[in-house]
Structure to design on (663 residues):
């Protein structure tokens, strides 16, 4: 059985998640998506493909306070994928105030869920008109953008050009890594939302050059920042693995997402990694092309990251 | 498709159109039924009947039990708790809107039945025909077990286990165990309660002293637990072999289990112990079903084509028949007597 792709949909209250979910459930796209909505959600469709869940977060016993998972999702995702008829995907809606981390971590930490599904992406919906206010008021609104692989900037018909630019800038400042999909009334192509394969290590080919401009996107609103590390020198894998393990153990609580592509000496394939808080996955990705410059790049997004310390530690992992 | 094929002496196979979630025998042992992922119940008369499909639930049929007067009680992810009569008519017992009725347990004599509905548990007194609700529990109920004598109901959830006295209404007892607990199983004598744990561990609780024997580091989550018929051993899934923990010897220092029939490449994902003889059926995720003999500690595989994980295993009350479901929709029935007679 092929793993079923799972998309996590986050977004602050009123951003338009419900409209998008209703589109996914009713549009004639020829696919079957099951939708898990939170118990107090407002999805108006009583459909056998809609399951209501009561958010239940618990800590794993491994002593790591950020290793939280959603017990309700373990149960519901397991149940949905066993249903007859096969599903093309599962979409999980989180409440406007939810921390996306436990949802994502469930797909890293529960073995059965991990084996039977593949986490496709985290998509965050943002209200172009109210986003600036919400950013100022709500840490959740900021965190949801930081975790995203794609941001749907909705309701752009309700803002003028300057307003749109400000919203775009605000999203990029928080998360330069995410693709931004402008929309009015959630009119984004569903293929852009549901089949992104963002967590597929094989697909991680490069990290956007913009992101590596470094420092440009320092944001005064928040302590959230991204730190990009880049080098043309190959990386000593053992040193890097030991360092990132120790680093995330100590600081993972403040690291929302990390991602990287590493050039290992004598290796024809990229080593790719990505992580959420203290969890990190590594594997070999696509081979390097002959003409390609083999740089090692990594990006960390989090709160109060020590840019200098990260740069020094990364440099210590390079082969001299 | 409807008629069974004979795989080997005493071993019949049907092809069902959906994932068998649960298997259960009728109270008189003359029939077997499977709860299906398409919401139907497949009822089969023994020995080699053709399945009758009864549409009961809108989503999946998640839980199933035999009614002592015949027929079945089932729960689904549509929130419906239904009674299906032997003739096939379906009656609604109750409905828990928005809840998945996933875990069901009934007393050995069939008189009491409990089913989980979110943080609550619906309890049916089938003799009196009454219904009660227990809870809410501190978190969603992840497993249920009634003690063999029917006096205690154990409900597992995040943070521990709740024990309800079924004979006397009152506040339940909470046993604290961090993390997500699941699959509770009382020992046949009722002195011990074992349960699985999300993080690849098993806990055995001595209910009198409240001592807990915990074992961790299993290869996978133990979602099924079973006691040997005499209560001497606890078995659990999530392993790469058949593992039997001696109880109560495991509470002493440096306990060691009996382990046999190692299967490096697969994991046990379904399990049921025979209620009358020292046998257990162990289903693996590669489709192997081992019949484990708990006296000589040897196991042999049933003649089933591998390939898909075992999704359901159940012995009949007399221990003469074993029903088995596989994820690709196959249902297998073993007549133990016939198989042993054929050698």
């Amino acid at each position: 059985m092929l793993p079923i792709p799972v998309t996590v949909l986050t977004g602050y209250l009123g951003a338009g998640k419900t409209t998008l979910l209703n589109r996914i459930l009713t549009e004639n796209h020829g696919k079957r998506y099951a939708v898990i909505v939170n118990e107090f959600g407002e999805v108006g469709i009583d459909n056998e493909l809609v399951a209501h869940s009561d958010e239940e977060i618990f800590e794993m016993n491994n002593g790591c306070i950020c290793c939280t998972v959603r017990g309700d999702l373990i149960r519901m995702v397991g149940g949905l994928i066993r249903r007859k008829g096969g599903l093309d995907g599962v979409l999980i809606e989180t409440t406007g105030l939810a921390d996306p981390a436990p949802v994502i971590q469930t797909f890293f930490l529960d073995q059965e869920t991990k084996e039977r599904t593949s986490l496709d992406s985290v998509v965050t919906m943002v209200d172009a008109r109210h986003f600036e206010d919400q950013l100022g008021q709500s840490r959740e609104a900021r965190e949801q953008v930081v975790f995203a692989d794609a941001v749907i900037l909705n309701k752009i018909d309700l803002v003028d050009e300057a307003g749109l630019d400000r919203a775009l800038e605000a999203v990029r400042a928080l998360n330069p890594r995410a693709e931004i999909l402008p929309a009015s009334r959630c009119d984004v192509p569903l293929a852009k939302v549901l089949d992104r394969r963002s967590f597929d290590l094989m697909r991680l080919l490069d990290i956007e050059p913009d992101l590596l401009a470094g420092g440009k996107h320092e944001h005064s609103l928040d302590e959230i920042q991204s730190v990009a590390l880049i080098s043309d020198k190959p990386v000593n894998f053992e040193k890097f693995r030991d360092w990132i393990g120790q680093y995330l153990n100590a600081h993972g609580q403040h690291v929302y997402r990390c991602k990287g592509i590493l050039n290992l000496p004598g290796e024809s394939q990229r080593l790719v990694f990505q992580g959420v808080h203290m969890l990190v996955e590594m594997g070999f990705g696509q081979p390097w092309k002959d003409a390609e410059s083999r740089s090692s790049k990594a990006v960390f997004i989090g709160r109060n990251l020590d840019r200098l310390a990260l740069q020094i530690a990364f440099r210590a992992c390079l082969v001299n | 498709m409807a008629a069974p094929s004979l795989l080997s002496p005493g071993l019949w196979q049907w092809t069902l159109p959906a994932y068998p979630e649960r298997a259960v025998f009728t109270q008189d042992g003359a029939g077997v039924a499977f709860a299906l992922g398409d919401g139907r119940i497949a009822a089969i008369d023994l020995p080699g009947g053709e399945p009758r499909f009864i549409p009961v639930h809108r989503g999946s049929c998640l839980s199933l039990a035999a009614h002592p007067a015949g027929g079945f009680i089932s729960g689904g992810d549509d929130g419906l708790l239904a009674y299906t009569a032997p003739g096939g008519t379906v009656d609604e017992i109750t409905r828990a809107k928005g809840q998945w009725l996933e875990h069901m347990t009934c007393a050995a004599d069939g008189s009491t039945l409990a089913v989980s509905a979110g943080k609550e548990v619906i309890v049916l007194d089938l003799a009196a025909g009454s219904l009660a609700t227990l809870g809410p529990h501190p978190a969603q109920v992840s497993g249920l077990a009634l003690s063999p004598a029917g006096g205690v109901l154990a409900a597992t959830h995040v943070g521990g286990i709740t024990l309800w006295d079924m004979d006397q209404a009152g506040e339940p007892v909470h046993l604290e165990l961090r993390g997500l607990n699941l699959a509770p199983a009382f020992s046949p004598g009722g002195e011990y309660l074992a349960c699985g744990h999300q993080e690849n561990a098993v806990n055995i609780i001595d209910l009198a002293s409240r001592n807990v024997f915990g074992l961790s580091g299993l290869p996978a989550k133990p979602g099924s637990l079973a006691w040997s018929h005499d209560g001497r051993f606890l078995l659990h899934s999530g392993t790469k072999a058949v593992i039997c923990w001696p109880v109560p010897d495991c509470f002493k220092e440096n306990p060691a289990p009996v382990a046999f029939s190692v299967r490096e490449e697969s994991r046990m994902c379904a399990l049921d112990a025979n209620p009358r003889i020292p046998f257990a059926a162990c289903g693996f995720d590669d489709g192997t079903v081992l019949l484990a003999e708990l006296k000589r500690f040897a196991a042999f595989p049933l003649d089933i084509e591998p390939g898909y994980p075992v999704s359901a295993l159940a012995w009949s009350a007399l221990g003469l028949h074993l029903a088995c479901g596989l994820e690709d929709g196959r249902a297998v029935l073993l007549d133990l007597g016939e198989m042993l007679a054929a050698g």
Summary: Residues 4-199 of chain A form a domain with the Rossmann fold fold (CATH 3.40.50.300). The two ends of chain A are 45 Å apart (CA to CA). Residues 214-220 of chain A have pLDDT under 50 and may be disordered.
